[in-house]
Amino acid sequence: MTHTELSDTDKAFYQDGLRLAEAAGKDKIEARPLWQSTRQEQDAMEGLIEVLTEEAGRQNITIDCHKGCNWCCHQPIFGVSHEFHYLWQFMLLNMNEEERKKVLQRAFDNYQKRGRLSQEALAKSKLPCPLLINGTCGAYAARPMACRIYLSMSEESCKKFHDDPDKEEHYPQLLGFPLRAGQMMNEGFSAGLKNAGLINNEYLMEEGLLIAHNHGEAIDPDKLHEHPLFKEH
């Protein structure tokens, strides 16, 4: 589907993402402005989710997502370059070295199992997210868009999908609007980065974390075009 074929609502979210990326810099994007724009994108989605949750309550629609429910944290999670760039910075500021090492080891172990799976097998694979610590997300405030927009109306459907993903009828009962809104906002953000010469690659969570770590080698935060997350693949 081309941009001209999008609905007015899709275009609105796309433009929101585009404006946020452009706010980070039209010709040259540096690390701090990019982190700020990423945080603004995430805050905007959180605001939307809050409004949707309130409206769902008024219409007697149940949203079963709550802290400690982590069925979805065992399925493959994807994010894009600017999200992993921000996520790694969050980890540097909020986790000690030992905690980061444990996350990276879990990411490595998972990637050894998931990295070469077919798309069909990958979609059905169940492994705890490397950031899942004692049943909750260890980087909840910086989690990627895919995690934020995954709103289930039935925890039981999520459990069934976790336990038996081969059955199509077990697919989680998700709210469609936030899924589409988050997708369009990220597409707009990616377009804005591309205009500034940065490629917003999509990565599996495990791969994105390992690339963001970059084998522990320091990268000039103001030379993002040299960062492996944004290298063209």
How would you describe what is shown here?
It contains 9 helices and 4 strands. By secondary structure, it is mainly α. The strands form 2 sheets. A two-stranded antiparallel ribbon has the order 1-4. A two-stranded antiparallel sheet has the order 2-3. The mean pLDDT is 93.
How would you concisely characterize the structure shown here?
53% of the residues lie in helices and 4% in strands. It is mainly alpha-helical.
Describe the protein's topology.
Layout: H1 8-23, H2 31-58, E1 78-80, H3 81-94, H4 97-114, H5 119-124, E2 132-133, E3 136-137, H6 145-148, H7 155-163, H8 176-195, E4 202-204, H9 205-213
Antiparallel strand pairs: 1-4, 2-3
Helix pairs in contact: 1-2, 1-8, 2-3, 2-8, 3-9, 4-9
Total DSSP helices: 9
Detail the poorly predicted runs.
none
β-strand amount: under 5%
Mean pLDDT: 93
**Helix/strand/pairing class, anyone?**
mainly alpha
Give the neighbour order of strands across the main sheet.
1-4
> What is the 3D shape?
globular
Write down the secondary-structure element order. Answer: HHEHHHEEHHHEH
Main beta sheet: 2 strands, antiparallel
Number of strands: 4
Terminal residue distance: 23 Å
